[in-house]
Amino acid sequence: MSELVKLIIDEKTFEFPVITGVENEKAIDISTLRKTTGYITIDNGFANTGSCKSAITFLDGEKGILRYRGIPIEQIAEYSTFVETSYLLIYGQLPSEKQLADFSKAFTLHAPIHNDMKKFFEGYPQSGHPMGILSAMVCSLGAYYPELIKPEPSTEEIDMIAVELMAKVRTICAHAYKKSIGKPFIEPREDLQYVPNFLHMMFSEPNKDYIMIPEVVNALRTVLVLHADHEQNCSTSTVRMVGSSWANLFASISAGICALWGPLHGGANQEVIEMLEEIHNEGGDIQKFINRAKDSNDTYRLMGFGHRVYKNYDPRAKIIKQRAHDLLKKLGIKDPLLDLAVTLEEAVLKDAYFQERKLYPNVDFYSGIIYKAIGIPTTMFPVMFAIGRMPGWIANWKEMKESTDSRIGRPRQVYVGKKMNDYIPIEKRK
Ligand code: CMC
């Protein structure tokens, strides 16, 4: 017999089924709660609310475990490419050699953006934040594929949109960067794979090809792979929420990009570097910044620390930290911000405030050091996160569309406003 949970309200007992995940996580199914009891639940920030059943990513924040389709993140980071990881997330299994070659080729074929779309960039100010540009462009992509923005696309059509998005997002990002520095766009090349093609569009000049350094390509590949999915985080939940109204995938992902932009989510990588620069420029007094973060009267936070689900070292941060060290060593770069980051981390991990709250470095703490070493400007950091998260967003949207029990996302609330009161004509208002 399946497990039940009993709830007693006014001496009346109600029973709710328990759902058990494959890793033995437990959830109380309260979908009939309001109908049977008249009550709803309230859960600020959805910290205890499961919004779906998902077979994509498993995460155990207490133990610091992260797996894509069951495969540990450490193995994916070591052996897989970003394109292969994307296939794994979207289609649920590692591709065969032919499937991988076809998938990769599709990204090359679909990489260029429509000439009309390139004109959009002219309308943005040079200082426009690339995340805003990216979100608008991704939503606008739908305008070029009217046949694909129907409410109920077929599996083949979803696959086509996925390829368009994955292929074009890096072109849009690279063009947004070129626009921001006032340089001409560089078109994608057919002979280059996903990550090198992105670096080429970012850093080649019309008459001067960017020289690929294998360690740079590899470091960027690792960072993208580590960002590829993270179950029901703020932006992925946004993608699912928007998609639950049967909005198309372009629109849903555009909304996800906006959610990711916030400094508490994907915008944190930009904030980390800006914070480290501030500490450095003010003489390196780490304790002053730690004290501010601990002060309950100050809203200041140490960016790159803490996580809603990790109450242990973020396994992604562990890998990125090592890669940052390796890359800087290989490139012969001595970045004082990396030294500062290591010292700050050491001080934070020893501090009782952070220990009690289980606040460890997260994925955003060291990723900026890698981007900076590659030459990517800070405003582009959240954009790099968006390129990385694209397969996870697509996989979650696809899973929701293909599930038989998906409903429009529509939370309830507890009303705490005014009781019923009468309309007062303007001449009688004080
Ligand atoms: N610096 C100082 N104090 C912190 C921090 C921090 N970075 N993060 C959490 N706290 C404190 C917080 O003040 C609270 O203290 P108290 O219990 O005394 O009120 C306690 O720790 C719990 O924090 P919370 O805000 O309830 O935790 P949350 O789960 O709602 O928020 C978070 C998670 C990631 C938004 C938060 O830790 C944070 O703001 N971190 C800094 C921003 C950041 O690095 N974000 C990137 C997250 S990783 C990338 C991603 O997946 O989005």
Helices and strands in order:
Layout: E1 4-9, E2 12-20, E3 26-28, H1 33-37, E4 57-60, E5 65-68, E6 71-72, H2 73-79, H3 82-91, H4 97-109, H5 115-120, H6 130-141, H7 155-180, H8 194-203, H9 214-227, H10 234-243, H11 249-261, H12 268-281, H13 286-294, H14 315-331, H15 336-350, H16 352-356, H17 363-374, H18 381-402
Antiparallel strand pairs: 1-2, 2-3, 4-5, 5-6
The structure holds carboxymethyl coenzyme *A.
Carboxymethyl coenzyme *A binds next to α17.
Plain-language structure description:
- The chain has 430 residues and is mainly alpha-helical.
- It folds into three domains: 4-65, Single Sheet (Rubrerythrin, domain 2), CATH 2.20.28; 72-264 and 387-402, Citrate Synthase, domain 1, CATH 1.10.580.10; 268-374, Cytochrome P450-Terp, domain 2 (Cytochrome p450-Terp, domain 2, Orthogonal Bundle), CATH 1.10.230.10.
- Helices cover 51% and strands 7% of the residues.
- It has helices at 33-37, 73-79, 82-91, 97-109, 115-120, 130-141, 155-180, 194-203, 214-227, 234-243, 249-261, 268-281, 286-294, 315-331, 336-350, 352-356, 363-374, 381-402, and strands at 4-9, 12-20, 26-28, 57-60, 65-68, 71-72.
- The strands form two sheets. The chain has a three-stranded antiparallel beta sheet with strand order 1-2-3.
- Helix 3 (82-91) runs parallel beside helix 18 and helix 9 crosses helix 18.
- Bound molecules: carboxymethyl coenzyme *A (CMC).
- The site of carboxymethyl coenzyme *A (CMC) has 21 residues, from helix 17.
